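Hello again, I could really use a second opinion on something today. I've been staring at a protein lately and its backbone has me curious. You're getting the sequence in one-letter code plus the fold written as tokens. I'd be grateful if you could look everything over and explain what you see. No rush at all, and the record is pasted right below:
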Amino acid sequence: MSFQPITQDYNDEQMDLLSVHFWKRNEPNVAWRHAVSSVMALPALRAFWPMSSVDYTVANRARDVSGGGYHLSDNNTVTFGYDQLAPYAGFDGINQYLDRADGGAANWADITGAETYVAPKAGGLTLGGWFYFDNATGAAEGLMSKWGATNATRAYRLIREAVGNISMGVRTISPAVVVVNSTATPGAGAWIFAVGRFVPGASVDVYVNADKDTRATAETTIQDVTTSFFIGNINALYLAGRASMCWLCASALSDSIIMALFQQQRKMYNV
């Protein structure tokens, strides 16, 4: 008895029909092409710091390219570079960070989740970007925050805890602190996509790459505080690593939008 090899024909016509649903090329240079435009399409985008646009002045070092002009100031000579195709701001974990002062009540970074110009079902807060850690564990490290030393100065923060998980927290006007920790514990030497979200009256969520952890809450409004906005620092807990493609939105972005952003950019970060 003879056996014929199993073959499968490559159907060019079928592939063309399916190509409207998938990228024909899924590689770093294609992700690089879409990285900035994908963030610029985020709803209620307040600010976007890709870490590629860098000013020569200390006061406007990391430039906000969203159009709002909320540039971040350099503290202790943050360095800017690139990893393959990914631009980044590099932090030494000792005293380097980026920040911008609060501009008064209901100002640029005072996102409470009660903004009346945002459609009710879209209201909330989302922030995130890509991060790289030099150390697997150690002291907690600030990623993005508007969070002071006391409850009266706390609004929201996205951090990596000392044990390695990513944590999203908000302080509301009730007052209450609501925190959710990721199940994932990212290690050192690799990029991760980290996002925190507050959905008023529903949940606080944290995303690490394609993984999501959530905590239900009835809280509806984040408090407005005078604390500065930081990247790479939270109360002198400094990031030892890198930050790239960081953004802030006055909207609780949907799971679909967050995952689409991750998928659009991931190959650029070798994920």
